[in-house]
Design brief:
By secondary structure, the protein is of the alpha+beta class. It has one domain (1-45). It contains two helices and two strands, in the order ββαα. The protein has helices at residues 25-32, 41-49, and strands spanning 16-18, 21-23. It has a two-stranded antiparallel ribbon with strand order 1-2. The structure holds zinc ion. The site of zinc ion (ZN) has 8 residues, from α1.
């Protein structure tokens, strides 16, 4: 099988389910991460949670 986003080869073990698509871990994390372009998404999220 292969990642539906980057077409990387995957084993069933490596595949993550993203809205019904089989994707690699990298793409799965990327898809679930806040927008990286600003670089402050995660940090500011942590601060506001406190
Ligand atoms: Zn991928």
């Amino acid at each position: 099988m292969e990642c539906e986003i980057c077409k990387q080869k995957l084993t069933e073990d490596d595949a993550c389910d993203l809205h019904g698509k089989k994707v690699c871990e990298d793409c799965f994390i990327e898809a679930n991460a806040p927008t990286k372009s600003c670089g402050a998404g995660i940090a500011s999220g942590e601060k506001s949670a406190r």
